[in-house]
């Protein structure tokens, strides 16, 4: 089974949105039994909380389930448990690498490296910007591209 973890700062806005959207893309392709999806934050202050209201509203508007999503914090073990860890921004990427260590099995990439045509390197944090729609559009584009890549890997 191929495994993907999305990581942002608090695991209440960007990474749970990406987890929910990516699960939907995987389900559309009939790959649920072949791909495990999770998300986490680099900070621990929201552990156990549901996604941010803005994330829940945008997912509801697009009829994407966020059921069962609760914030967690990335651990060193995640570097061994996951094949791919996807950072939402440059700072997250640096923090992930510090937590999982240099010898971790997981490949670590920045989310928007999946869609370089957007011309942006970091997914902005809507916790601070309030722009959940913009983030949803970026997340959807990146998750579509990642789902295509993962489908080729597991089929």
TrEMBL record:
UniProt superkingdom: Bacteria
Coiled coil ranges: none
E.C. no: 3.1.3.48
Stored Gene3D superfamilies: 3.40.50.2300
Reaction catalyzed: O-phospho-L-tyrosyl-[protein] + H2O = L-tyrosyl-[protein] + phosphate
Pfam families named in the record: LMWPc (PF01451)
Family classification: Belongs to the low molecular weight phosphotyrosine protein phosphatase family.
Record-given protein name: protein-tyrosine-phosphatase
Organism placement in taxonomy: Bacteria, Bacillati, Bacillota, Bacilli, Bacillales
């Amino acid at each position: 089974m191929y495994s993907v973890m999305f990581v942002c700062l608090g695991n209440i806005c960007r990474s749970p949105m990406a987890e929910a959207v990516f699960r939907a893309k995987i389900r559309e392709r009939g790959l649920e039994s072949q791909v495990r999806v999770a998300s986490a934050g680099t900070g621990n202050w929201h552990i156990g909380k549901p996604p941010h209201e803005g994330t829940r509203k945008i997912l509801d508007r697009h009829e994407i389930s966020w059921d069962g999503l609760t914030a967690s914090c990335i651990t060193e073990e995640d570097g061994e448990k996951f094949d791919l860890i996807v950072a939402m921004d440059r700072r997250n990427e640096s923090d992930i690498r510090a937590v999982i260590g240099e010898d971790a099995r997981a490949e670590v990439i920045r989310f928007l490296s999946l869609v370089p045509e957007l011309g942006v390197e970091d997914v902005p944090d809507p916790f601070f910007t309030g722009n959940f729609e913009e983030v949803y559009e970026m997340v959807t584009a990146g998750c579509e591209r990642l789902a295509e890549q993962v489908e080729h890997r597991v089929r």
